[in-house]
Amino acid sequence: MRLILLGPPGAGKGTQAARLMQKYGIQQLSTGDMLRAAVTAETPIGLKAKAVMDAGGLVSDDIVVGIVAERIQQPDAERGFILDGFPRTLNQAQALDAMLIEKHMELDAVIELKVDEAALLDRISQRAKEMQAAGKPVRADDNPEAFKTRLDAYRTLTAPVSDYYAGTGQLRTTDGMAAIDTVTDAIDKLLTHDAKA
DSSP labels for 107-140? Predict the structure, then answer.
């Protein structure tokens, strides 16, 4: 099972990815984690990424795609994977497609969690209040202003990725604002429907 989870920050991708990992015995691959692991392991692509990051630059699409290509070849990803936080841009989506073709792999589905942005902002504000009330640290990106910035970046850069996958016929959408279990059930139905189709 090879999946991409799309959706703005706070849509619940992490929660749903954890459930999918458990159900299908597949790995959740986060680009941030993969990048750090490649740098730590000093792989050739990791060393390239480190040089760019040490210089204060943003890691290029080529490097990110190279890191994903390395990671999906590892034994624990043989049964499949969930890409979370990747592809972030149209260029990355196109590069991922080319790389998967080269490796004779294909995606089973691209699932987008659709959300109401105003309700999402409320959800994040509420989450920050609950964390404070519980005496737990609030994530820096969970304050409303920082969150709005992340949402704007998502809308500008990543929303076109949805259109791209809609154009390839791979995109499946579900309501990310529903209760967690409802979203899980909806994703399950989308995946079993695709498997039967």
Answer: -SEEEEEE--HHHHHHHHHHHHHHHHHTTPPPPG
